[in-house]
Amino acid sequence: MYSVMQAVDTPTELYSTGFDGKSMSDFDLLSGSWNEGDGTLQQFNTCGYDLTSLLRGYVVENFEWEADITGLDGTNQGGLVFNQSSNTSRSGAMVVDFTDGGKTLRWGHYDDRGYYVNLGSLEVADATATTPINLSVQVTGANVAINLDGQVVAQTTAPRSGGMVGLVTSASAVSFDNVMLTAIPAEAIKQESASSDQAEALAPTAEVATAEKKAS
After folding, report:
1. Residue 138 has pLDDT above 60, yes or no
2. From the DSSP assignment, how many helices (H) and strands (E) are in the chain?
3. Domain ranges of the chain
4. d(CA 178, CA 37)
């Protein structure tokens, strides 16, 4: 059973966990090798891509989704997935994750065939270290603000609005902690047409659409 959230006037916490040993069942483990331990949710498969765990029970349109993400082997290629329509297809879903071993943050979506389409990226400070980094997305409709450690670093537009949220890793062992889903007012993000200066400040280093990863 999934709960479709109604509009809120103030930020309203919907779900949070510090993974105390009883939270893994809150997630639909679609792919990968997941385990709950040491106060975190861990994914150990270092070969697969787009290994996904979806939060059960919520379909949201205006929300903030966040997690503290740590690379367990010095390589952090974890991230967040959202706007996923079902647990059987990722077509149309958005993903924001680390790549290049954790040196790059990228954002994109899956097309109708489940292939990844890159929308932008930026270099980040050392996300490869084995210390947590907080990644969050604030989403109102199709407007997306991407935050690292509480600071907005990029904005983008999703191809669709609303859906389920989850966690994702690619080719690295990663742990997730302090996971939180919050309903936010629809006007929380006012996406404006960026000037060239604004676009540079947000620093997307790639606007290349590529089909990189096929649905499993």
Report:
1. yes
2. 1, 17
3. 3-202
4. 13
